[in-house]
Amino acid sequence: MAKSKNYKDIFPILAIDKDSNAIVSANGDLTIGLEVTLPEIFTLSDGDYDNISETLVNSIKALPVGYVFHKQDWYVEEKFAPNLEHNLYSSDLARENELHFNERPYLRHKCYIYITVPAADVEKRTSLKSSLLKRHLVPVKQLEMSRLQSFVETVNKFVYLLASLQKIGIKTLKREDLLGTKNKTGIYQQYGTLSFDDPTINEIETSNDGFLQIGHKNTYTLTISELADFPTTLTNSVIYQPYSSDKYKLRVSTGSAIGLGLNFNHIVNQIIVIGDKDKLTKKLVAENKRHLSFAQWSSENQASIEYKSAYLGDMSMKGRVPVSGHVNVLVWDEDKNIAMNNRATCLAAIAGMDFVPREAKSDAAAIYWSCIPGNVAEIGKDNLFTAFIDEVTDLLAIETNYKDDSISNAGIRLTDRFGRPVMVDLFFKPRELNQISNRNIFAVGPSGSGKSFFTNNMVYYMLSGGMHVSIVDVGHSYRRLCDLMGGRYITYEMDNPIHFNPFYFKDGNPSEEEMDSIAELLKALWKTEDDRVSTAEMSTITNLVYEYYSALRKKDELTRRGEQNGKRIFPCFNTFYEFTKEDYPKIFENRGGREEVEFDLTNFLYVLRPYYKGGQYDYLLNSRDNIDLMELPFVVYELDNIKDHPVLFPVTTIMIMSNYVRKLVKVKGVLKALIIEEAWKALTKDKFANFLKWAAKTVRKHMGSLAVVTQEVDDLVGSSIVKDALINNSDIKILLDQRNYENRFPEIAELLGLSEKESTIIQGVGRSLDHTRPPYREVAIALRNNIKVYGLETSGAGYAAFTTERSEVEKIYLLAEESYGGDKNKAVFAWGRGERPKGTVKAS
After folding, report:
1. Strand pairing category for 672-677 and 468-473
2. Could you tell me the domains of the chain?
């Protein structure tokens, strides 16, 4: 027969001390609550689990006899709600990506620890004496200030010991955290509604069949409350098979099976009562004597003697601490059928831990009531088992969800391994937290792993967050993204050859470093890599550049004052060449220069003649269009058509270096990234190799980021530049699916400086993907020693914008021609809606 009780009428908490934040129960028990931030799941090693367990054991052992440790973990289903008003989502693609995740379910986790000193011995109470059934008066002694002060000191000591573990954060719960405010529900309201947000307190309906209704929530309670239900062996962590292989074993806490391992509403209560070692010893010795006189009549008595003797031996010889323990899991849902299914899943999860699961029946309501924060002393001795403290702490779930923000101007939209959308900040927050000292990236992804797709996604959010990105590519992986984001796409085509203008500066006043850069370009055009350039020759080229800009400034000044007719001289290679031929010989002579001794001016002009008007490459350095590359947020240099050209390729690479250096120095207040994808192998010739070495060490001083992306293991193992310049100076490492390289991964791990834990986490990438989700890939991101695996999932439009699969790209272009007048951006969104071209793609 069901019975209803009003939560407020029988509430077992009497008061909360405003100074100490101590909770006083109706029984006179004192409690202080702590909110605990746990380490992120799937990020810990064997050693981490041992260290956490040891610290927990030592912290709990420091509590006096009779004290109660109550850990309460909430796992509440919520649905992702995109904030479309945020400035990050002003573009259509960003909105599409956010709406893709709209109402995506996930578990919100909160962890609390409550330390209680009971007014009376917990093990002398039974659950039948619950305040749910009968009211009690507060013992006067429990309200004495001396007892309160002693209790607060004990809790402070516990907090001090636990806080020594840097992976755990602790905050004392204040009165408003427990009782709530006008704008926020408190923990007591939340416990009475089984909701983080619902302020309505409803009646509690109980029955003797284990069913408990709290408002509209149907609940069931599963317990571990007898030592006989324990497995023969118990450890603090177990291998998580879905993300493990024969060689690499990823571990999770034993208790995670009933923590984040259950993807529905539930609360896990884990209770430890510090036992009296002397009292328990006397009790067991007396029981052994009694059993001994009957041992010859019963094999069970003999077994009991042996067990208790072993237990006594462990206490005396090994110093193990006896405790009483209890574990329960409260599952619920508004739909009773779903609640019953969740109950069955929870029972199976407990059985999967090799425990014998039990369901609370007549005492379900009393167990729920005793787990109200501050009321744990009512758990009752009938719900407690006796064990050693290390065995009970092995049951604690010690992980939480990823802590990445749900929204951030500096973040990249990814998901955690459960599918919850997160914004991963690679560049700013990690720097503030001292997780990285530079913002350089080294990314490794085998062919087909989604390397370019990930980079497209990353660049899109970097640009949306106001960062500047320059990409060097071979393979046209960023054409659609460039169109979508309004970037400048620089590539070589027969009717539109690649062109630059290293001589143009908006203010007409280049810095010394910028003039040096032009001098280096001229040296490279004049001499081959094998030719020696003398000090006199380099000095002359440097002076030539200086005199050219001095002449331009004088000409401009005269023109402004009206003292000279004609237009201002436009800075470009043509006017530089004319200055060198017509004006500089006299300057050179006046400086004491001798033709063909200090400098061969005739030879210099002859070699550079092809770049002057009318020459074979007169388009290359005389652009009037690409004069603003330094100011543009997004530029893509596509080198596929010139990667083997003996003239265009080296000149283009020098221009890329020059433009990026100018951007680093001139553009202030934003991150400036240079991403070299696929093309980097071709760029490891001496000049660019030296630039990479310089950039890897220097860009951090100018709020820059050098990112290098590669795919082949042999690219890593066989290059000293990779190791010495790039890997050692890249605090951000991104690794996509490496399972194909499992046997060779120790080589990669050694080169990248990965620990055994990091290697294990990386080898879990792509294993056991959740096929109930839309298609996605996984990627491991290491911020120095902090490594996590994320899901890479986008909307349909996002997929169309970022895919580099050739057949799909060609179909998207065909769809643009057929239905959208060649507008590729419209075709991207149409593809995302499921539209496909009617025709077939012509062979290239």
Report:
1. parallel
2. 3-79+108-275+321-393 (no CATH), 276-320 (no CATH), 402-500+624-793 (3.40.50.300), 515-622 (no CATH), 805-844 (no CATH)
